[in-house]
Design goal:
This protein is mainly alpha-helical. About 70% of the residues lie in helices and about 5% in strands. It is built from 15 helices and three strands. The chain has helices at about 1-10, 10-35, 45-70, 75-110, 120-135, 150-175, 175-180, 190-205, 220-230, 235-250, 255-305, 310-335, 345-360, 380-400, 440-450; strands at about 365-370, 405-410, 415-420. A three-stranded mixed beta sheet has the order 1-2-3, covered by helices on one side. Strand 2 and strand 3 form a beta hairpin. About 30% of the residues are buried.
Length: about 450
Amino acid sequence: MSALRSIFELEANQIVLNFAHGLVFFLLGFAVLLKSKRWSDLTLAKSLRWLGVFGVLNAFGDWGSIFLPIQEEVFSAEVSGILWVLDIAVTALSYAFLLYFGCRLAADTRHDLYWIPRLVPALYAAWLLALIVAIFAGVVDPVRDLGSFRPFRVAYLYCFAFGGSIIAAWALYMQQNGLRYLGLDNSVPHLRWVGISLVLHAFAAGAIVPEIGVLPAGEMNDAWFFVSTGIPARLLTGISGAIMAVFITISMEVFDEEFQRRIDEARRVRAVLDERVRIARDLHDGIIQTLYALGLGLEGVLLSLDTSKETAKAELRSIMSSLDKAIKDVRGYIMNLKTAHEDVSLDEQLRLLVRQLQRESRVPVRLRSEPIGAGIVSGEAIENILLIVREAVSNASRHARASEINITLVGDERAINLSVADDGVGFDPSEAPKPSAGEHQGLENMRRRAETIGGHLSI
């Protein structure tokens, strides 16, 4: 033990230890500030930045104790004294931020503790005011006796370092149930290790303090610990900081998981909205057009009743057949079963559609198509193409006052060209009514369907 003690008694090794100690806490603070997420809904995210501020300021306080003795030959004694006052104030402020982190996290977790964080600024202000008064009263002399700072160091270590570490560990422990409730169980063991490191830090930094003539610091202090163990207490605080840095960095992966969940949720919402738009298009281009054709058919039946009852009966049978198909289509939409089959070629399915349109429409519909092998066009593409044709034929029947509608399908394995032409009055596409809720959706639906399957619509 004496050999171990002699190693740390060397001034050079003390400088290395202090620098490494500061580096550990700087990395802790930098990592926390870099990875903390203000947008997160987790309770931990709201307070985590204060732990990062603690780490950075604590590092500056450590490095100040290394570089200030070197600068004493450059600055006057008065300037050096002011710098030492700033160094102890910054170190005390760093531990005040640790205490604030614990209190803020506890208050965010248990709302009945909302008043606790408000005490921290008052405590630090009281400590700083007492230090300033002691300096002006001559009780503390930073120019001639740095040892006169010891009572104030002990005060902030007991209050801020020990209290902050214990409260922060307790507040982190309270996060376990919330993380488990959100299904983020993987982060619980890591936060538990952060809590353990904070308890170790409370002992090494907040209980093992500089020696002063009053209890408990008179008996349990850094000199006693060094003589008893052969290692300085700062080595333990450095180890606790290293453990804290490692596990708090790992535990912050919970933010990545939360962000991925948000992306997945956004995708699900987008999928639902896209499905609603798809269903609306399908209803408009399929069911509504069928119902409109049935309405035209019924008008024809009404006219036929006065001339030929047999013709009226035949038209009614055709209408009933179309109505049965419309009912099946509605069921298919509800059960999400309405999908074109890839094992039937596009030209064959188009031919079946034209037969149905000829029954529904009062305008002759003719088809000229080239054979296109089954499987060349996907089921989704076939379904969209058929609905485009149905919409185009419906528009020509309703608005164009056409006497004939011609559908032409040509293509090969590389591309397909489908045209629907009529001899009606026509219209200017640039002057077409803009789509509105429930009206004038046909042209826009046709265009979107074409884009969905990698095609282009030209009117």
